[in-house]
Amino acid sequence: MTEIVVIARLVPDLVEELEIATSGTALDLAWLRLIINEFDNHAIEQAIILKERSGATVTIISPEAEGVEDMLFTTAAKGADKLIKLTGVGEEKPTNLSMAQTLAEIIKEINPDLVLTGVQAHDDFTGDLAPQLADLLDMPYVGYISGISLGDGKATAYKEYPGGILAEMEIALPAVLGIQSSEEPPRYVAISKVRQMMNTASIEDRDAGVLETDSGVVIDRMYLPEVADRAEMLEGDEEEVASKLIAILQDLGLL
Amino acid sequence: MAVNGIQQSLPFTAQFKESLLKIPEGENIQACLQCACCSGVCPFGFAMDFPPGRMIAWMRAGILDEMLKSDSVWMCVSCYACTEVCPKDIPITLALMTRAKEEALLAGNVPAELQSALEFSQQYGNPLGESSRKRAAWSEELDFEIPIIRKAKRPVDILWFVGDYASYHPRSKNVTIAFATLLNKLGIDFGILGPDEFSDGDSQRLAGERGLFEMLAEKNAKVISRCEFTEIITTDPHAYNAFKNEYPQLGFDFPVRHYTEFLVEHLDEITPLFKENGKAKVAYHDPCYLGRVNKIYDAPRQLIEAIPGLELIEMAHNKSTSLCCGGGGGGMWLDGFRWEKSESRLSEWRVKEAVAVNADILAVACPYEPPRFEDAAKAITGAEKLQVKDVVELIVDAIGN
Ligand code: SF4
Ligand code: SF4
After folding, report:
1. B61-114: per-residue pLDDT in tens?
2. B103 lies in the same domain as B221
3. What is the ipTM of this complex?
């Protein structure tokens, strides 16, 4: 049976207005609400699609955070088989390398054919969790994947390049793939199914061990984008505005 | 407590039928005459592969599995028009159509637009995907403060359940502000739940997400049971319906009235406040969940008739035959889908009816409606001057400052 591992992380929800902490170098976490990283959600969907298509055991691993149990049970309702929560992860964000080292130990025990995770997360400066993981596991890595099909000992992955070019590439398994989007949008699962999972599924706790939080990068200042008045407002009635707009577009060589 | 899907081990149709028979009055389905009154009166019947009458026929034939694959059920706006006309008192909307949506949803057949509204309701407690912390942000525009009951830590007379669209929608918010202004003017002792309020969940329930409805109801009940108040008042007929008919079935019993009933009781205090108000013909649109479902036809009309200068007129469909605005049963979140399937909008149909009777104002009493009808009026020839106003806006306009 194909073994698939998905790494799913919770990230700050941008629906809330972000506030800078008094330190001036970090977000004020008090008001932050967490939500699944959209790219990881696509990685989960892709794993479930592969399971439905040709059978697989899907394991989801998530670092602990507020609401992570609900998120894990939701993945179970979608079809995930095993749920693992990494405990002992502090408030301060560990470096990707250190997180990858911890994850690699657990993943080695599972001995998967495929490791999927979102290609990026909006609270991540470097986006190197998946490549670091690939290196530690001694597996090939490809990022920005938007579709996978599994073959015998290999996978075919689809990757979009700018300009509408789609690459189809063959990758020897086991491999780590960074998911940009799943083949189908992430599905909806009825709350009644999630609630059922809360009563029947179980989450395995794994101690994350010692995590390094100092990445060597020093944040000097964190601030909200400053309002600047670079926009030009076109004044006048509809006719005037339209002709000014046409003149601008002509100037830019667009018409 | 959650309703489980039908076990796939038994034939879907047989199980589906069995589940219907368990719903109060569900057994009436056995008496269906196949008269097709339901399918005929259904505003979207023409665009459904399985209008209610046919659904029953196929169910009897044991071949309803087809329905799960069709997207027919997502055309149902839960308007109760079919239930109203059925000669056999079959709970078509409550049982048949809603159960069908639940099964479609469990089978993973959910239009993308609807999916995000359901996800938002789960994450933020409102289907619009707005921050729950900002649920009372509309009140910042007022020149007086509205107590948030948890913070005020004192009993209030009226717990005003504001609702989703009334809290967040830029057009519906004006109605909310008008109602707050009026309550304040009347010296009513009221408070709101503010950020502690969750969606009432009724439209999500009618869109087939019963589990989500129950989750939201539990959250609201938990917050409300900690407040001391005499009764709940709401401007939202969907919230009203949830509190009146659905929450009690989950064991959450709170006294509730729609704001139109409440204001009728205060007409003696409101009437002396009216000023000279010009003249206008007002056609009143009965919201499905105020009118057909809860039989409140007179209160809003009494209020309109009390306002000087306004002449109440009726459209072709009125009271029990009122036409849905298209927002019910998840319709607020399925506009694109329904347009694609039917190339028609119920809100435009309704606006044409208002134009046909030469109305100056189309009056409404539900937060879904002002934005829907105003948008429709932009598309209908002859509706250029038609104003869409909630009844409470008409009252506040006539009082002036
Ligand atoms: S109106 Fe009632 S009796 Fe007639 S077909 Fe519909 S469900 Fe059956
Ligand atoms: S509730 Fe309204 S939309 Fe739904 S089937 Fe009945 S008449 Fe049609």
Report:
1. 999 988 888 888 999 999 999 999 999 999 999 999 999 999 999 988 899 999
2. no
3. 0.84
Cβ–ligand 1 contact at B81 (below 6 Å): no
Q: Which of B101, B212, B213 to mutate to test the interface with A (most CBs of A within 10 A)?
A: B212
Q: Give, for ligand 2, the residue of B54, B70, B73, B77 to mutate: max count of ligand atoms closer than 8 Å to Cβ.
A: B77
Dump strand ranges (E) for A8-125.
10-12, 34-36, 57-63, 82-87, 114-118
Which CATH number covers residue B67? 1.10.1060.10
What CATH number corresponds to the domain at position B210?
A: 3.40.50.1860
CATH classification at residue B378: 3.40.50
What is the C-alpha separation between B329 and B324, in angstroms, rounded? 10
- Contact state of B105 with A185 under an 8 Å Cβ cutoff: no
- CATH dotted code for A3-207: 3.40.50.620
Structural domains of chain B, count: 3
**Residue B11 and residue A38: Cα distance in Å, rounded?**
37
Could you tell me if B249 and B151 lie in one domain?
A: yes
Give the contacts of B26 (CB within 8 A, at least 6 positions apart). B20, B91, B95
Residues B106, B119: one domain? Answer: no
Which residue range(s) make up the domain with B228?
Answer: 115-264
C-alpha to C-alpha distance for B178 and B186, rounded to whole angstroms: 12
Confidence of residue B117 (pLDDT cuts 50, 70, 90): very high
B2 assigned to some structural domain: no
- Torsion angles phi and psi, residue A149, rounded to 5: -125, 145
CA B349 vs CA B91, B285, B345, B356, B391: distances in Å: 26, 12, 7, 11, 21
Reading the block at residue B119, the tokens are: 């996800």
Which residues make beta-bridge pairs with B387?
A: B361
Q: Quick one: pLDDT band at residue A213, thresholds 50, 70, 90?
A: confident
pLDDT in tens, A137-179: 999 999 999 999 999 999 999 998 988 899 999 999 999 999 9
